[in-house]
Amino acid sequence: MDDPFVIAGVELGSRLILGTGGAPSLQVVDETLAASGTAMCTVAMRRVDAGTSGSILEVLDRHGVRVLPNTAGCRTAREAVRTAQLAREALETDWVKLEVVADERTLLPDPVELLDAAAELVGLGFTVLPYTNDDPVLARRLQQVGCAAVMPLGSPIGTGLGIRNPDNIELIVSEARVPVILDAGIGTASDAALALELGCDGVLLASAVTRAQHPARMAEAMAAAVHAGRLARRAGRIPRRHHAQASSPTEGMAVL
Amino acid sequence: MDDPFVIAGVELGSRLILGTGGAPSLQVVDETLAASGTAMCTVAMRRVDAGTSGSILEVLDRHGVRVLPNTAGCRTAREAVRTAQLAREALETDWVKLEVVADERTLLPDPVELLDAAAELVGLGFTVLPYTNDDPVLARRLQQVGCAAVMPLGSPIGTGLGIRNPDNIELIVSEARVPVILDAGIGTASDAALALELGCDGVLLASAVTRAQHPARMAEAMAAAVHAGRLARRAGRIPRRHHAQASSPTEGMAVL
Amino acid sequence: MDDPFVIAGVELGSRLILGTGGAPSLQVVDETLAASGTAMCTVAMRRVDAGTSGSILEVLDRHGVRVLPNTAGCRTAREAVRTAQLAREALETDWVKLEVVADERTLLPDPVELLDAAAELVGLGFTVLPYTNDDPVLARRLQQVGCAAVMPLGSPIGTGLGIRNPDNIELIVSEARVPVILDAGIGTASDAALALELGCDGVLLASAVTRAQHPARMAEAMAAAVHAGRLARRAGRIPRRHHAQASSPTEGMAVL
Amino acid sequence: MDDPFVIAGVELGSRLILGTGGAPSLQVVDETLAASGTAMCTVAMRRVDAGTSGSILEVLDRHGVRVLPNTAGCRTAREAVRTAQLAREALETDWVKLEVVADERTLLPDPVELLDAAAELVGLGFTVLPYTNDDPVLARRLQQVGCAAVMPLGSPIGTGLGIRNPDNIELIVSEARVPVILDAGIGTASDAALALELGCDGVLLASAVTRAQHPARMAEAMAAAVHAGRLARRAGRIPRRHHAQASSPTEGMAVL
Amino acid sequence: MTVDVNGSPRNVPPGCTLDALIAAVAGSLRGSAAAVDGEVVPRGEWEHFPLADGQQVEIITAVQGG
Amino acid sequence: MTVDVNGSPRNVPPGCTLDALIAAVAGSLRGSAAAVDGEVVPRGEWEHFPLADGQQVEIITAVQGG
Amino acid sequence: MTVDVNGSPRNVPPGCTLDALIAAVAGSLRGSAAAVDGEVVPRGEWEHFPLADGQQVEIITAVQGG
Amino acid sequence: MTVDVNGSPRNVPPGCTLDALIAAVAGSLRGSAAAVDGEVVPRGEWEHFPLADGQQVEIITAVQGG
User: Does chain H touch chain F (at least 3 C-beta pairs within 8 Å)?
Assistant: First the structure.
């Protein structure tokens, strides 16, 4: 593969990372995995007796997809670190999608708790992929404490509003020494393509696929969009011009 | 094919239509055709002795691509009609991309001349695909006089500014009884995906590919983007929400 | 006044033109006129016995405001010309806001009928202010047939979506030889300020004021916004920069 | 005044706060103060012998304008706290515009240092007005430690890019228990009006006025824009609609 | 005789002129205008403009409008 | 004795070890993990980790999540 | 005799027909077309279309275009 | 003796107090403030604040700033 996607020394076969939340059934998860060609999916960690089913892991296994546990629902560094530790014991992976949100209404990351949790988890030997806001300074600090990637939001989780501030994403990319993965806010394929065009190395999305009217079809759309956006980034787009420029010759017109 | 793209009763194998103008060489045209999988390309009609080469037709033949002559450079209905007639004799096709521009600076269509030319060409038995602005009323009138498709601009030719007024494109699509093809203004892959997501049936672009730093790679990107956008349109995207919505369960949190 | 606003040789005391439609009562019209400081208002022409009241004219008289009859509701050049003629006889003014819309759903101008009506009315000695779309070519043609101003829309009538395509408005302004008045689509004060900043000479709005929760207050807001936007245009704004630039000195820092 | 602007119990006569940096001369500062009607201006603290002139204070005195010292150029909480202490001794005010930036290139606030400095200064009895990014969570935390206002950026300092993410500003406003002042990024009058329309209580700007081609005129424009935006916010704008709505009666058309 | 005024039949005295009809319908001549059988009649002609049985008359005035 | 498992009291035999509890609650050891009184217990220690009366045990597993 | 071809004078033998001229100018008949004195001549008529001295002939073909 | 003022050495008479230095450097006490060896000295203490040889003094004032 002439354009590998590598996180913490591990090459992933796809730049599209899927969240499995929101899918109406494991059958739908199964179909979306097949359609998306993804190589890594997130899962949440919850009490065994909360009417949950462990068989999401079987679905991921069947597709040979890497599992990325998240710390969704955690509000403090303490909770997040313990949740990551539980995930490591349960899933035997030291990779974690670190989420520490400030409240249930906005689901926005708490910058202080997030940074504390990231530093502690790195110290505990985790490979930390933090879900963060689009602040370039926080992204920089997360790298300084040793995160393996930074995952800025395009817009709040589940909103489908796309990338609200492309300038910030471009700024994060321009400074990044680790992969940048656009996480949260993707609503449709063009949003995903734009993320890659802005220089993101990958996209992580859940609701846009799992809650679409036809999840598997949208999963296929997202896979194509990520491919398109990456190629476009590498193809060197034409500059934006304020005046028109003809694409047909201006000489050699017949006199009619 | 479960989602055919049909213009005037003819099914085209790709929703991506390429203009060949601006490519530095026929070799590049050849590579972009291969990479794009396009089924139809535009050509301009010019005097034989203007240092021109007829072999663009051979390149199109080699790829089994349909030729769509344009009337680029024409400023009046009279010029455009005669140019279309010459194209019909030269290329033995009655399909024409109708361009009647108001001036060389903006290359914007002249609504009055365009409508007159369209009506006359339909009367002469042509299959008319007009390059138009994004006015829904003009698009409606072009359909009323019998055009086989309408091709509104996203932004002025060659600017790469994308789709400046998505509301107008959506309005044109919502009323259209013929295929709507986004023509002009595409700068990168996400622009093309957006066009399909807005409901356009296809995209016509030239400079975005032929003037990219790596034309063949951008052609491949555009093919993937058009595929992605069409699938996303048919997949039924999630609604835009102003408040966040969790994609992980809110129950079953461990107490840590 | 060092920056006069002149249409057809007549200086108007305000760059804000108000439509009176949509106001819940003449009392509200009276208050909004007072708050806005406008110098010209539009009225519609309707059958006397349609439960209408002529006293809108008395309100305008009381404020010394010029009346600008419109041809709202007309769908053909023929209807619009006759309506303008009736308005001239009724109101003894040869100024007319020319509206020829294509349908009731979009209320978008019909470019062909509009241009025909404009040419005929100019020939009949009218001072024609056409409500048009944002097509720079149509704006140019309306000037060529002798219109005294061009009044492009920002977005469809009554939508409050603001200026959807600022590029087109700037293009119209850059070519205009008559005043350009942004008509339709204004939703709030910043939209009006932006219109002037883009180079428009004035703004015409109705619903944004008459249908606001507090019409008189919004009228005052619009007057201030038009003033602000015009001053800003003339003040020469700073260029947009992609990198930050300090506004405090970078030398002379104390070492602390 | 029926709509007072109050910070920390002090009513200010204008919602427009001016930075004095970037003005080519004190004469220009003098003119912009007069034109703006501002009630508070920021100053920076620098070494006496750095070719600086103390007489900016005389200009502010002459206009009866409150002085708001900033901590511009500080990169750590320690520096910022000491700079604020020096300002308090020098200017005999305990109000401070707290700036702690992460680097000279982006001039973006460092969330961690900013929050630490804010908490310490509040503890030292300062009235703290922090320049922050547009993260609603950081804004909330700054309020929790006792800041008297929050001053989110619209876009980076000096860029004139306006408000890049209105959603975040609206979110900050919706949660705020102290005044929200849009600080940084304003380029022209419509940007300032928009800030107030989004619910900000005031605007702080420097370069947009001091570096405009005609600073005093732009200062007057900004004063009008802030007034317009505030009135519009309080007037209750019309909702955005996707379909047109006539502002003239649809009944009573004459048959012509 | 009967003329159609704004879509409704109306009896008018024989020899009724347009100015009389406008005054009767609109209350005054100011601010109104009329078209007879689709043709606009200039204000100056109203006084001497005789109406004929069965004519279509439109009488309009200014109302609030955008 | 009684331990609190995921918020509910549960009787377990004296000397019950964590691996037995996890197996009983989760059906298998694979894909699950546990914390006792707030401290995460490494998988390798489960077999020999004795439970004491009144301890708070959290047993979690992976579920669909974003 | 002399005809004007694409803006330049060109000598052609008397009785020269359009197909001959196109073949000479364009190298082949395929992919080209012609207008004489502003009127497009259908491909089927070229063979028998006689040229006259002083006529304006436009001969065009397809080139790369947007 | 010598103190460092804003990064440059400056000779001051023995027993020189901070208020005298500020007045000498800034021209007046109004609008200025000082830190000695990194600690800010409250305005009320200037009069009796003795300077010592080799101290680092920062004297600042207000300038135009954003």
Answer: no
